[in-house]
């Protein structure tokens, strides 16, 4: 049987759907007596036990983590690791214990890092489960009792009071001033007034009303701000709105762009190695090379072409990015997320607590005279339920009350002592009346202070009749404030001759003003959004707030254009996926969004090729945070659920920090690209030397131990040092890279091929000339190896910048790189000059003249790259000038 639409269903029908007897009769739902008597006898213990057996406990079950061996298996099951393992096994078969040990050390290091990261994360549903309340006040067997919230069942009658956390999804059956903070689900900073009736002035609630407009429901995990109520449990556990979010949070967000790119690169290298390795082995056999020698030659090729240091480089580069982001208040929970921020093309940001400060503030005060604001501020602070927090001077309570009291105290319109003094009489705010009033003794007089809805308060005041000049001025001011997204509260006051028996409907008051308040934007957000725009990133505000408020806030951020209509959850319901994709391209503000709506937007943007970053702080943001390419949660005001669902946590809750994080993400990818170029070009150089040498009559140009020593000790050290480059300064002036662009783009692949071939052929020529001169084989190999080492030494400095000249960079800008490059040369010299090391690797000492010759040949690769950069810059400038000329002619 399909459950009814609870929020739009009458109480009698709700009771019938829950298999409960008809209500015997309830007093007026607006009175305290209604809350007390509407409960009835509640469920019997036997009925509750049967329902608990049927529906299960009222809690969110945590997902079971994968076994350790499954997680570890994922780290090993990659082409790069598999080939490293094969190379290590083959090396051990050849009894080359040193090389084999180094290869397996790299495998262990890389797999350990990946395993630790994978085991650290998935706590999303556990964090959601923490929102369950330990106890609930329920009516059972005709008595009011407290029971564990986990024992609640559909049909239970629950009582709520101020300060309670709603223990399950409840259909309100009686309410007395109930207001609930639903910001964790809707993003609305203001509490929502609740009632029992499904109609308002004869207008029924819509069945498809957004969650924030379902005024007859109180949802699990939300907080009662004021009032009291009775409600029927209609959903528990995973059937609640909170439970549906828990299910959405378990959505797999898929691999990050960097993981996709590195997987693609690894597969490319693996395929190339298979093809070339088999070809070299077969060619050696055809040319008459013995089986053992052919096998050794193939091993040398695999070892030379395999960029063993690449997994370590990726981890180090991302680790450096993590440290840099942490220093700028962005804590990264998953390593690949460092780079993902840099490739972001769309940022979908929550409003409350992310773009705004999550605190109502009085922005403007309008008075009939346009002068003294004190009377209005005073009334707002004295007709007020905000209280001082027990642990300090901070005010707590209803957001509007806190805002009005804070403004009055800051302006000196009222003192803390006046606020704390007990009133002579008061009538708290009730949604049915839309105003509150307080009678206080001031300077020997009884002063009545009233605040509430503008039209209601105006009706209590003299000179405010409709059509009058003062009334029209008030209406115009009210409309202007509302159009600017402000919540407007009117104030009035008057002196009474004596103390009335009860506070009835006020009359003959003086209208003192309007106070417009809002949750203000964070400082610097507008500028940060502008920087995102310059960086080619589309910023969308996705909020559960009202469309009018969302548009007004969006205008303050520079989002959208005048006249643009926001996208609402209702609009989305009428659009298919193709239509919504098109609408999202031109949308900057999305309002009245449910968690499901946010999740749908994220999925469609990703399906459309976008790299989506989502920011948020509430439970309602968690599914979108989890499904996004990268989720960014607020650390200070954010919920545990949001933080556990996110990849990055901002410790200062500042959207501006995201701009820094995006720049650092791009720096990180640039470092990975530079390091990958260095490894690939050197690997190609070694492959060229080994493959071409295969077709000559000469012996192996390099022994496997030589290649492994150079790749790990020399190339690996310098390659890792490239990960510490600080960027070239223009990261936020570039467009996000294309989705299908690899770790190396076409230009960098071309540079890798040019330099790789040049270094390989140059090394091979040195080896050939040395052999033709009749030098010993060990000396020939040593000359070839040192030539390749010098190529690598100068190549690493050319790789520091992708576009600018190496000579334009500060040589001390990356001291780790300079030190590692010089250390690599020293190590190579030691391994040729120190006999035990030379014998282990197969080297021999060289003369200073030979070292200088190898250095002179090695520096040519730097010259080639510098010439290539000049040509590319010239072509880019020429293309830019041509484009500008065409634009001018248009």
Question: Helicity range of the residues?
Answer: 40-55%
Mean pLDDT score, rounded? 82
The poorly predicted ranges are 24-39, 120-129, 881-890
Helical stretch tally: 34
Q: Structural class, judged by helices and strands?
A: alpha+beta
Beta-strand level of the residues, as a percent range?
Answer: 5-15%
What does the main sheet amount to?
8 strands, mixed
For the record, what is the CATH homologous superfamily label of the largest domain? Calcium-transporting ATPase, transmembrane domain
User: Roughly how many Å is the radius of gyration?
Assistant: 36 Å
- Our measurement of the CA-to-CA distance between the termini, rounded to an integer number of angstroms, reads 66 Å
List the quaternary state of the chains: single chain
- The CATH topology of the largest domain is Calcium-transporting ATPase, transmembrane domain
**Class of the largest domain in CATH?**
Mainly Alpha
| CATH structural architecture of the largest domain | Up-down Bundle
Total strands: 25
In total, how many domains does the architecture comprise?
Answer: 4
Q: Which overall shape is indicated by the principal axes computed on the Cα atoms?
A: elongated
Pfam families: Cation_ATPase_C (PF00689), Cation_ATPase_N (PF00690), E1-E2_ATPase (PF00122), Hydrolase (PF00702)
InterPro entries: ATPase_P-typ_cation-transptr_C, ATPase_P-typ_cation-transptr_N, ATPase_P-typ_cyto_dom_N, ATPase_P-typ_P_site, ATPase_P-typ_TM_dom_sf, ATPase_P-typ_transduc_dom_A_sf, ATPase_P-type_domA, HAD-like_sf
Main location: membrane
Organism: Corynebacterium variabile (strain DSM 44702 / CIP 107183 / JCM 12073 / NCIMB 30131)
């Amino acid at each position: 049987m399909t459950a009814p639409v609870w929020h739009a269903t009458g109480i009698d029908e709700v009771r019938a759907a829950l298999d409960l007897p008809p209500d015997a009769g309830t007093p007026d739902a607006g009175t305290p007596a209604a809350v007390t008597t509407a409960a009835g006898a509640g469920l019997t213990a036997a009925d509750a036990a049967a329902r608990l057996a049927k529906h299960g406990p009222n809690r969110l079950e945590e997902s079971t983590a994968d076994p350790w061996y499954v997680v570890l298996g994922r780290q090993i099951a990659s082409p790069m690791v598999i080939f490293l393992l094969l190379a290590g096994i083959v090396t051990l078969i050849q009894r080359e214990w040193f090389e084999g040990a180094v290869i397996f050390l790299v495998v262990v290091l890389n797999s350990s890092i990946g395993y630790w990261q994978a085991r650290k994360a998935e706590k999303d549903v556990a964090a959601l489960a923490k929102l369950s309340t330990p106890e609930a006040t329920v009516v059972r067997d005709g008595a009011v009792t407290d029971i564990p919230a986990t024992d609640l069942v559909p049909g239970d009658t629950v009582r709520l009071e101020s300060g309670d956390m709603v223990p399950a999804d409840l259909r309100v059956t009686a309410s007395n001033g109930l207001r609930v903070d639903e910001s964790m689900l809707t993003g609305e900073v203001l509490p929502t007034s609740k009632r029992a009736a499904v109609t308002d002035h004869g207008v029924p609630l819509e069945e498809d009303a957004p969650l924030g407009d379902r005024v007859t429901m109180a949802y699990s995990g939300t907080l009662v701000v004021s009032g009291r109520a009775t409600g029927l449990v209609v959903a528990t556990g995973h059937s609640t709105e909170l439970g549906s979010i828990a299910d959405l949070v378990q959505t797999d967000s898929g691999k990050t762009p960097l993981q996709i790119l590195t997987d693609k690169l690894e597969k490319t290298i693996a395929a190339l190695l298979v093809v070339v390795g088999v070809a070299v082995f077969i060619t050696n056999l055809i040319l008459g090379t013995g089986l053992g020698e052919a096998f050794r030659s193939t091993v040398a090729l695999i070892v030379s072409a395999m960029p063993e240091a690449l997994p370590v480089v990726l981890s180090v580069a991302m680790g450096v990015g993590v440290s840099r982001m942490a220093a700028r208040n962005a804590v990264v929970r998953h390593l690949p997320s460092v780079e993902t921020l840099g490739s972001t093309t769309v940022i979908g940001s929550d409003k409350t607590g992310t773009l705004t400060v999550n605190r109502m503030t009085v922005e403007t005060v309008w008075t009939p005279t346009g002068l003294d604001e004190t009377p209005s501020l005073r009334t707002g602070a004295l007709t007020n339920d905000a209280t001082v927090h027990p642990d300090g001077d901070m005010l707590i309570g209803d957001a509007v009350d806190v805002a009005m009291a804070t403004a009055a105290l800051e302006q000196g319109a009222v003192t803390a002592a006046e606020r704390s003094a007990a009133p002579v009489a008061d009538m708290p705010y009730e949604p049915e009346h839309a105003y509150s009033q307080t009678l206080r003794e001031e300077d020997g007089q009884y002063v009545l202070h009233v605040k509430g809805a503008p039209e209601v308060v105006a009706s209590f005041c003299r000179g405010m009749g409709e059509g009058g000049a003062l009334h029209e001025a008030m209406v115009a001011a009210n409309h202007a404030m509302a159009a600017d997204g402000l919540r407007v509260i009117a104030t009035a006051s008057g002196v009474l001759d004596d103390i009335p028996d009860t506070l009835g409907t006020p009359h003959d008051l003086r209208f003192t003003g309007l106070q417009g308040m809002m949750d203000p934007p964070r400082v610097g957000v507008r500028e940060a959004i502008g920087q995102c725009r310059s960086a080619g990133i589309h910023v969308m505000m996705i909020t559960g707030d009202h469309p009018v408020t969302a548009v007004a806030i969006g205008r303050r951020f520079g989002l959208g254009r005048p006249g643009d209509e926001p996208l609402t959850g209702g609009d989305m319901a009428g659009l298919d996926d193709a239509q919504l994709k098109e609408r999202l391209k031109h949308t900057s503000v999305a309002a009245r969004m449910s968690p499901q709506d946010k999740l749908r937007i994220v999925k469609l943007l990703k399906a459309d090729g976008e790299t989506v970053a989502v920011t948020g702080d509430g439970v309602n943001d968690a599914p979108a945070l989890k499904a996004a390419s990268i989720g960014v949660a607020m650390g200070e005001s954010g919920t545990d659920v949001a933080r556990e669902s996110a990849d990055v946590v901002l410790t200062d809750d500042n959207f501006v920090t995201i701009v820094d994080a995006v720049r650092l993400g791009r720096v990180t990818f640039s470092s990975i690209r530079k390091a990958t170029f260095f490894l690939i070009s050197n690997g190609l150089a070694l492959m060229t030397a080994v493959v071409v040498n295969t077709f000559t009559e000469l012996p192996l140009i390099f022994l496997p131990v030589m290649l492994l020593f150079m790749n790990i000790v020399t190339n690996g050290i310098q390659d890792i040092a490239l990960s510490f480059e600080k960027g070239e300064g223009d990261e936020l002036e570039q467009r996000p890279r294309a989705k299908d662009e690899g770790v190396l783009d076409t230009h960098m692949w071309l540079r890798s091929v040019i330099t790789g071939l040049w270094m390989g052929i140059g090394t091979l020529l040195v080896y050939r000339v040395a052999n033709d001169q009749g030098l010993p084989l060990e000396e020939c190999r040593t000359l070839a190896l040192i030539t390749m080492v010098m190529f690598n030494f100068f190549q690493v400095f050319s790789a520091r910048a992708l576009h600018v000249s190496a000579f334009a960079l500060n040589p001390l800008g990356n001291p780790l790189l300079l030190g590692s490059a010089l250390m690599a040369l020293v190590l190579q010299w030691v391994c040729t000059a120190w006999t035990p090391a030379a014998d282990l690797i197969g080297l021999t000492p060289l003369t200073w003249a030979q070292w200088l010759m190898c250095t002179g040949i090695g520096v040519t690769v730097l010259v080639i790259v510098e010439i290539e950069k000049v040509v590319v810059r010239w072509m880019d400038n020429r293309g830019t000038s041509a484009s500008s000329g065409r634009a001018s002619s248009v």
